[in-house]
Amino acid sequence: MTQAPIVRPLAGIRASDLGSVGGKAANLGELVANGFPVPDGFVLTTNAYEAAAASAGVVASRPEEAAERLRSIDVPPAVATAVLEAYRGLGSGPVAVRSSATAEDLPGASFAGQQDTYLGIEGDERVLDAIRRCWASLWNERAVAYRRVHGFDDEGVGLAVVVQRLVDAATAGVLFTADPITGRRGRAVVDAAAGLGDTVVSGSVDPDHYAIDPVSGGVDEHVVRGSAPVLGNAQVLALAAIGGRIEDALGAPQDIEFAFDAAGDLWILQARPITTLFPLPERSRGGEDLRVYFSASVAQGYFEPITPVGVEPFLIIGGTLAGAFARSRGDREPVTSPVLVSGGRIWADLTPVLRNPIGREVLVRLTSVGEARSSVVFRRLAEDRRFTARGSRLRTLRTIVPLFARSGIPLYALRLLQSPDRVRNRLIREVERVTRVDLPADATATDRLNAAEDLLARAPSFVFPRMLGLVVAGMVSYLASRRLLRGRATEDEFQTLTRGLPHNPTTEMDLALWALTTRVRTDPSSRDAILNGQQADLARAYRDGALPPNLQTELAAFISRYGFRAIGEIDLGVPRWSEDPSYLFGAIANYLRLNDDAIAPDEQFRRGAREAETTMKTLLARVHGPRRRLLRFFLGRVRALMGSREMPKFVLIRTLFTPIRELLHPVGDELVATGKMTAWDDVYFLTLAEIRDGVTGADVRELVAARRAMHVREQARRYIPRVLLSDGTDAEAALISVPEGALRGSPASPGTVTGPARTILSPHGARLEPGEILVAPSTDPGWTPLFLTAGGLVMEMGGMMSHGAVVAREYGIPAVVGVPGATERIETGAIITVDGSAGVVSIDSH
Fold it and tell me: Domain residues for 822?
C-alpha cells in the first residue's frame, strides 16, 4: 500500500487534490499548471496535520485546548524531516508559511484571513514553529466561529501548510477581477501599497486604488494616497490582463494577491473566488446586450432560495406571458421567457419594458407604490443611454391595448366595479372549480406527476386574468378617487381610506388567529401549554392529538381554513402550517401577552374602518355636483375592492402551489421506498422532469445532495440585489448613494410612534412584545400575526402598496418601508421614532 505523501511540490497539484492540500494550495497548483508566475514552493499536506493532531490529542469539541496543544507539541519526526528537506530545496532566503485549510478559498466561502500566515521566516526552527502556529490557527476563535456560521463541521476540516519563497516586494496588493462593491464583472479593481502585501490585506495602510473600465480598457479610477503612485498605468493594465486570464483559467471572478519585485517582475501569490458576488443567470453569460433583471423573489418579500420544483410554476407563468406577447405581435422567433433563475431566486428580465417609451413610465410608477427603492433605481436606469427608449408610444399602444383587452382583465375589472361582492365570489368559485384535482387514493406516482404538470399547464392562464381583475378594479378606483380629489386631500387622508379594509384574506386570517386566542385565553390548560411549552413540542402534540382539548379543537379548525399557508409560501417546497404548525404557537403566545383591550387587534381593525368611513364623509363634503356622485362611487369601490389586493397570491397558494406540494409528497415516499432517495422531502430539490426520471428508475440521491448543499450555501447569503444587470452590477449599489446617517424610506402608514426596536430577520420562533417596533427585511403573510402586537413597522423592502404597508395601514400602526440597511443599522432595543407620514426613521442616540 502506497503511503500518503507528507510533502508535495506546488507543481503537479490540481483542484482535485483539495482534500489533502487545502484550498489555497489547490488554487496555487492550478495557477502553476496554467503557466502563471507563482513563487516556487511546496505544501505540507493534511496527512501531516492529522499526525500532529493525533500526537497532540486534539479534540474538536475543545478548540482552545486544541490550539494550545498544537502550538506546543514537537513536530512529529517524519514530518519534520520531510519539511526541512523540502525547505532546503528552495535555497537560501526567507519564505512565506501560509495556512491552507480544506474549508478555504472555496466557491461558497472564502475563509479569507481565518487561519494564519507568517512572512519572512528563515531557519529550520522558525519554519517548524510557523508550521505549528498555522496548525493551531485552525482552532482560533474566529476560524471556529466562521465555520459554524457557514455550516462546516469541525470534525471534518483539515489543514495543510504552504511554504514558498518570499518575494522581495517593491509593491504588492490585491486585484479583484470583478468590482467587489457593485459586482460588475470584468471591471478590475486594484489596491496596492509599497512593500509586502500583508499591510493591504490587513487594512493597516491606506492603499492606492485603481479601477479599469471593461469597455474602454483604460484606468478610470485612480486614487493615490502618497506623494506618488505606487503603480504605473502599464502595471495596472498588466494586472487587469493577467487577472482576466486567471479568471478564465479558474472559471470564476477572482480575488488575487500579487507582488512586483524590485526588478519589476509580477508574481501571483494567491487566488480565490470572490464569494460575495451574486451569481448571474446562465443566459447572461457571454451576452453583449446589457440586460436588467428585477428580483421577483425579493419583491415578494422572500429572501431565501427557492427549491428547484418551487421554481417551476414561475418558469411556466413566465413562458405563458412570453407566449401571449409573441402571439400579439405575430412573432415567429422562438419565445424567450422573461423569468430567469439565479442563486435559487426568481428574476424577471425587464429590459424590453425599460426600453419601451410607455413601459418604462409604467414600471417606475408601479414600483413606486409597490417597491419604492427599486423605483428609484429604474428611474436612474431610464436616464442611462444604454437603455434608450425604442419605438414609438403609438406602436406600443397598438401592441399592448389589444393584448390587454384579450386577456379579459378589463372585462373582469368592469364587472367587479359594477357588483364587487357578487362577481368576486363568482370568480373565486370558478378558479376553485377549474383547479380542482380529483385522484383516487391508489393513484400511482406517474398519475400524480401527470396531475401536477396538468395543473401547472392550465391554472395560470385561467387564474391570472380573473385575480388581476380584482387588483385592477381596486387600483382604478383608488387612482380615480385621487384624481377627483386632486388638491383637496392630503396623503395621510388617502392612506386612512385604506384602513380596516374588508375582503383582505390575510387580515381575515390574522383576525381568525386572534379570535382563536381570545377563546383559549380563559382555558388555563391551553394558556399554560402555549406560554410554557416549546413550539416544536406543541406541534408534535397537535399532530398526535394530545394538546389540551380546547386548544386542539380550535387549532384544528384554524388549520382547516388556513393550513395551506406558510412563511415563504411562494416556494411550494416549504412545509405548510398543516404539516408544521410550530410558528402558530409562537404567534398565539405573542397574542396572549397582549392584555390591553384598547389595542386588541379586532378593535384596532374596527377603529380603522370607522376612521376610513369618517374620512370618506369629510372628503365627499369637499366636492359638489356630479363630481361628488362620481367620487362617492369610486370611494365606495375603494373600500369594497382594495382589500382584494392580497387575493391573487392567496388563491394561487391555495389552488396551485400547495396542491402541487401535496401531490408530490406521496411520490417522495415512493422514491424513498424504492431506494432512489434518502428522505421524502428530497423530492422538492428536483425538477418535475428529474422526479419522473427517479420514478422510472434513476438514482437521484447524488443530485439531491448537491442541490441541498447549494441551497444551504444560498441560505447563508445575507444580501440579495433588488435590480441586477447582466454584467453583474448591483444597480442600487452602483447608482444610489444613501446620505450618511439618514434612515429614509417611503411613507406607508400614517402616524408617529416611539418605542424600542425589535429587529427580526425571520419570523420563525420570533417574539415581539406588545408595543415594540418591528424592523424586518420584508414581510409576507406569514409575518403578519406579528403585526397585531407591533407598535410600528420598518421594512427594508416595499412601497405604499406592498403587502406589509397594506396590512400596517389596516391595523393602524405607523410604518416606513424601503429603508436601506434597516436591519443592520437598527439594533434590537434601540429607541426609534417611526414617522409613517414623512417616511423617516430616527434613532435615539442617547
Answer: 735-843
